[in-house]
Amino acid sequence: MPSKLAPGGDATPRLRLWPLPALLLTACLGSAAALRWQNDGTVAVLAAITLFLLLGLLVWVWSFSRLRGRKRWWGVLCVLLCLASVAALVRIRGYTGATVPIFSLRWLSEASPELELDSQALPVQLVPTLWDTPEFLGPGRRPRFQTPELARDWNATPPRELWRRPLGEGFSSFSVVGEVAFTQTQQGALECVVCLDWRTGETRWVSADTVRFASSLGGNGPRATPTVHDGRVYALGATGRLHCLDASDGKRLWSQDLPVAFAADAPDWGYSGSPLIVAERVVVSAGGSDGRSLVAFELLTGQLAWGGGHERAAYASPMLAQLAGEQVILCVDNQGLSAHDPESGRVRWQIPRGRGDNVTQPIVFGADRVFHSKGYGGGSGLWTIVAGPGQPDVETVWTNRRLMKTKFHNPVLHAGYLFGLSDGNSLECIDPLAGTRAWRERCDFGHGQLIGTGSLLLVLSEQGELVLVEANPERYVELARLPLFSSRTWNPPVLIGRHLLARNDIEAVCLELPVRKP
Known about the structure:
Layout: E1 4-5, E2 11-12, H1 19-35, H2 42-64, H3 69-89, E3 90-95, E4 101-105, E5 160-166, E6 175-177, E7 180-187, E8 190-197, E9 203-210, E10 227-229, E11 232-236, E12 241-246, E13 252-257, H4 258-262, E14 276-278, E15 281-288, E16 292-298, E17 304-308, E18 319-323, E19 326-332, E20 336-340, E21 347-352, E22 363-365, E23 369-374, E24 379-386, E25 393-400, E26 412-414, E27 417-422, E28 426-431, E29 436-442, E30 449-453, E31 456-460, E32 465-470, E33 478-483, E34 494-496, E35 499-503, E36 507-512
Antiparallel strand pairs: 1-2, 3-4, 5-36, 6-7, 7-8, 8-9, 10-11, 11-12, 12-13, 14-15, 15-16, 16-17, 18-19, 19-20, 20-21, 22-23, 23-24, 24-25, 26-27, 27-28, 28-29, 30-31, 31-32, 32-33, 34-35, 35-36
């Protein structure tokens, strides 16, 4: 096709339009990936689509349109002005577990993350009950709860919301004793340990520390869940400050700053391991070198009792276990899984899991086997611990990088099978002893959380939807769904009898779940 001659004889190519549909299609696919996580309303969805389309248009104008000289620069300027206008209206509120940006309009009202620091004057009395969960995740640091038999038909008898309230930033869960629950949250420049009446949502007391952990990618605020023991609360903040508080009023009894005390490099996404009580000591993953990776302090005084290991801290919580005839503290660190002597902290054996973001708790099978899973391409495996006259030996039973790739949560064990969210795109059921997959269901749960009770699973998706699923090793059976939150949800929920206590980095809610038999 002949070219149009510009003054002076230069050939001016015609406008090239064919790459434009391809670039716009790519932008639409990017929009679809991002908008899978949007729960901010139609306006925010349209704003996100506009942003991606403008980026595609910018690439076309500069690289593929055949515009030259001033025309190309005017085209770029127009697109940049449009982008600046969108940027002035839209903000990135955070990122999902798959690092997809979460968009919202700057002027849209959201549930306020602010926390009222006023509390009731009466001191808290801890009265233990059958449903208590005084430490991270659940009894024995497992995401399984003993509850009344829950109803399966939420259409006939839907869950009842008892209360909902702002709570502040952070990814801590709840520990529960009697009528009160403890969690951590960020209130501006203050990192707070909060005691709530879980029946009403009212604040009983707040203990605040002037420190803030912030991450545009990983989110702001504390991660670890407080541990309650013998009238005291032990809480580890995201920057590594360990506090011992009086459970009755939140008064600080003693503190330790782990990075300062042990010259430790804090984990990239903040300290996340919840304190563990062993005999008369509290154990935390400090991540210090020179024998100070895992450390123990005296419960009453906060004095250092022992230290062991050399690896940086990861994001799981230490836990007590019996393996190969001896009691050990299992610690998931930056290198893998380490077993420590509870009396001295000395490392007894190790299982390398690859450097990176190790998050998931190990699971003990029988007297001598331990299972562990991770995301980021790590997969899962089973190992046998063989007792010997000196250091125990570790033998690999099986490993599979494609099986049970948990990232932010812990799988649930039921009837000899493990159920877990694998790689953020599927719910998976595996036989952990054989290392085989029973089934895998593609789902929209993202990097959410999972807990179990009886033969049921409660999935709290990353988008904030509560889903009731059968713990069925033969096939995926979904029973009910309920929108619970409208923003990123990474915090593990807890069950208190028939009550579900859940939160994300904005608000908290308590549901009364229907039961088959009152």
